[in-house]
Amino acid sequence: MKLPAARRSRSIGTSKISTPVCVKPKSLARTHARTTGSVAIRAVDFAASFGPIAIDRAYCNWQFFGRYREALLKNAMELVQLFPPGGTAKNGADIRLCLDAMEDIGRLAHIGSVVIVGGDSDFMPLAQKLKAAGRTLVGIGARSATNEHWARSCHDFRFYEDLVGPQ
């Protein structure tokens, strides 16, 4: 099966650099309620410009965001189910995403870039750790809900709206 151009491997020098993509559908849903699945796929296609995609994950409680599940699954996104302990486990997805990203770069030396789809300032400590580890960090978030400090902490940052065009 031939992959679309955006999903093919891209060689950099003599080694291949891989990119994990971490998505928070809840942050996508704030500004693109009807099109979150397609926004996530466009984010993945954009991430592929940095190298072959090694890992695609989306983090949330899927019983509340099930309307995006099908589009994400059709595009080989791993859905990470989070069951909040109690009613207000606000940062559960953020924490899990950060832990997974650090674990991935620790055990997978070929990962050169990490793409985080979300606009929270909660990701700033992750940005500092990824930079210290010599990885490139790319952020993608909604123009109306992205923390400016988070956007500046990334090597490259794009707004969803610029990836998908007018809605």
Provide a descriptive summary of the structure in words.
This protein is of the alpha/beta class and 167 residues long. The chain has a single domain, classed as Rossmann fold (3-Layer(aba) Sandwich). It has 7 helices and 8 strands, in the order βββααβαβαβαβαβα. The strands form 2 sheets. Strands 5-4-3-6-7-8 form a 6-stranded parallel β-sheet, sandwiched between helices.
Q: Helix coverage percent of residues?
A: 25-40%
Mean pLDDT, rounded to whole units?
A: 77
Compute the CA-based radius of gyration.
15 Å
User: Which architecture would the CATH scheme give at its second level?
Assistant: 3-Layer(aba) Sandwich
- How many runs of DSSP E, i.e. beta strands? 8
Instruction: Name the CATH homologous superfamily.
Output: 5'-nuclease
Strand line-up across the major sheet: 5-4-3-6-7-8
In short:
With 167 residues, the chain is an alpha/beta fold.
Any descriptors?
Rossmann fold; single chain; globular; 6-stranded parallel sheet; two-stranded antiparallel ribbon; 7 helices
How are the SSEs placed, and which strands pair?
Blueprint: E1 11-12, E2 15-16, E3 19-23, H1 25-29, H2 36-47, E4 53-60, H3 69-74, E5 78-81, H4 92-107, E6 113-117, H5 124-132, E7 136-141, H6 148-153, E8 156-159, H7 160-164
Parallel strand pairs: 3-4, 3-6, 4-5, 6-7, 7-8
Antiparallel strand pairs: 1-2
